[in-house]
Design goal:
The chain has 14 helices and 20 strands. By secondary structure, it is α/β, with parallel strands linked by helices. The structure holds zinc ion (ZN). The site of zinc ion has 7 residues, from α12.
Length: about 475
Amino acid sequence: MADVRKQWLDLVNKYMLQPDGPANDRFWVPELETCSRDRIKDIQEEKLLLCVKFLYECSPFYREKFKKAKLHPSDIKSLKDLPKIPITTKTEMVEDVKVNPPWGTYTTVNEEIWSRRGWMMFATSGTTAAPRAFRHTLHDRDIWAWNDARAMWAMGIRPGDIALIAFGYAPHVFFWGVHYALNLMGVPIIPRGSLDTRRTCMFINTFKPTILGATPSYALYLGDVMKEMGYDPAQSSIRIIITGGEPGATIAATKRRTEALWNCELHEFYGCTEASQTAGGYTCQYQVTQKDGPVCDHLTEDIQIWETVDPVTMEPVPLGKPGLSVVTNLFSEAAPLARFLIGDYTVLNYDPCPCGRTHALAVGGFYGRADDMLNIRGITMFPTAIEEAIRGFAEVGDEFQIVVSQEKMLDVLTIVAEPRPDVPEKDYPKLAKRIQDAVRLMVEIRPNVDLKPYGTLPKTEIKAKRVFDQRKLG
Ligand SMILES: [Zn+2]
């Protein structure tokens, strides 16, 4: 058993090139980031074959899963055999934790490894289900840092920058990798932790960080509080905002709004607690500054295999067609999950990015989890499409709500938004009509628009709760 773990870690480390710093000013690891598709496939194949052995031997959950599918690691002989491995879902993990509390058996870290070189525990959020917890090791810390550093190098973060990281240092994967990556890059950190927002603004004004790490919602809120305090965020030292937790740079109107507010470039990370805790997806300098077409997220294919699957059949969909994101993790000691269904809609393509990186792109980013999708009067839509429409109105504040209710058996969509204080109330009806038209153009349904005085809606500090589906209550 110990042997396969050692072989796995040796293999992962073999491809952890440039562990101490970047090769040049454009790429941290040009050998990996600009390599041919054949080379990417070779690396993935070499890792996949050993990864399934490691999972089979060190994760009882996966051993059972393989046995149920009448599959043995030796049946996975090449990348082409990947679809033989059944998809892993969150629900299966929840069931596993119920039977095997508190850790479950889906990870490959046991008591012995945890007590010898454990680094940190992360857990899924929510209070209803038992948390799914992951014990990560020092190996994972180093590889998260290395990979996030590669992503942030692509974003244009360089020594000389100073980063203010506005997150709670909670047991969520969000920004922990970024923290260690900044250390590796030689970029000092001002941690926000539980500082209140006004004090955070004062810190920005006093200590002049150049990088802000936050959720997209918090970046907007923080900018507004800066203004209230008499500081102009556009004149502040912040030049790049990096976000995670929600789509940011890939929603055009949110990107424009945030970049105008702060006079900065807005970047985003994409990942998840279970399998893609480091920069699974990230934006590069080209993507956030290009003027034509959607902003795409880069994926890192030397450490992961990305697929998109049909939401009903769970069969892989062809490149260029929308499907749900599935990831196979090829770098982790704790969570080398095989074919884990993250479940966000996206479209993958293999066109090289003009920045020079050759790995797959998620076109337009990840639009939202399948379970976030709304069905209103038979039309399915993502709340992010409505956000795109609302955020296009400069005279409307950052907070908004999407309320879905039922009247006489008919679904009703209501947008609650707040015009900025300088919009006179007599102009509300005209503005409401324009918002109606914009939302209808986006999602084909004419909503009711309820405009409330500025400051009525609760301020979003971390992740936004924007959708209130009252139909589910009845
Ligand atoms: Zn690029």
